[in-house]
Amino acid sequence: MLSSKIKERLHQERTPLYLYDMDLLRRTLESAREASGRYGYKVHYALKANFDPVIVECIHDHGFGTDCVSGNEVRYSIECGFAPSDVVYAGVGKTDEEIEYAIRQQIFAFNCESRQEMRVINDIAAGIGMKADVAFRLNPDVDPLTHKGISTGQADSKFGISYKEIDEIAAEAGSLNNINITGIHFHIGSQITELKVFEYLCRRANTLFEYFVSRGFDLKHINLGGGLGIDYNRPEEHPIPDFETYFDIFARNLNVGKDTEVHFELGRSLVGQCGEFISRVLFTKINSAGKNVALLDGSMTELIRPALYQSHHSIENLDGAGRRESQYTIGGTVCESTDTFARGITLPELRRGDLVSIKTAGAYGSAMASRYNMHELPRALHWERQTENI
């Protein structure tokens, strides 16, 4: 990864920080654009994954839209130059103020999560004399075979309209004069590596699409969400996800008619591998259980995924060449026992001042950072071939 190539440059920087390989980001975006474009698919970037302005600008320049889950994300997208017609507003809880703003901007569509939300969008649109384009977010009850904290398409989830309620919502939608039902939407989860899951999604999507068409709905588009997983274990071997296989699954299994636009909302798979979290060893010690402990200047406030999801990230001691290896617990500075990046990980001997890279941190890293313990938000270094922007 990039960090090992520019180690000396990184030693000059104040840590912790996020290092972004902008060349890898561009190659990834080009790969996704080429693979999706083969079928005429439209990709919206899931802004929640990483809203770093330099990264967002690069994504905009590659012609993607945005998928937003808050009113501020909708506003940010438009301020960053995305056309409202390329902006989708998802999110399980939208405030009245956020809904009105998005209606006034004439965004591509709301992904509507409930009957009540459908009514509220209609009422707000009526109140300002406008119409809103709406897609039903349907919960297909498909197990994504991923971490329960990032599974969103099962029957007991808070997300989406229950498939048991579609008769009622289909009947009511026709009486609401200030919304246009333009599509249906699905999102079953994140970090999905069992790609057969997407075949199951297609089968459910085909059935539900035909259901609404048979009841007279003129569906212009279908949104299959995102969820394509990336390799957290061997990022050097798989820096760019297999977009070709991913989109080919939908091309072979989705049956919605050639005039129906097919949309996706990718986040992690576009930006995950381009980011590394760079931290410095503050102290090492041996605890009462006889375990080696290394304490970094980074913590769960900058990268919360290991604490929140018990997620695995590949970790490298950038200064460890030639040293004897030992097992370590890698902890951060926050006064929480959960502030641990790894346990029992084998690394070359860690010494005070060593730089450590936590890989595959481009998605849900800086975007989820907080100021707990009054920490500063992490800095970012955007690296491009011979020049860098900080």
Description:
The protein has 390 residues and is α/β, with parallel strands linked by helices. 29% of the residues lie in helices and 25% in strands. The chain has 12 helices and 18 strands. The strands form 2 sheets. Strands 1, 11, 12, 13, 14, 15, 16, 17 and 18 form a 9-stranded mixed sheet that branches. Helix 3 runs parallel beside helix 10 and helix 9 (196-214) runs parallel beside helix 10. Residues 143-154 have low confidence and may be disordered.
List keywords for this structure.
18 strands; 390 residues; elongated; alpha/beta; 9-stranded mixed sheet
Rg is: 22 Å
SS class: alpha/beta
Total helix count?
12
Low-confidence stretches: 143-154
N-to-C series of helices and strands = HHEHEHEHEHEHEEHEHEHEHEEHEEEEEE
| Helix share bin | 25-40%
Largest sheet: 9 strands, mixed
The proportion of strand residues reads 15-25%
Total count of strands: 18
Span between N and C termini?
19 Å
Question: Roughly what is the average pLDDT, rounded to an integer?
Answer: 93
* Overall 3D shape: elongated
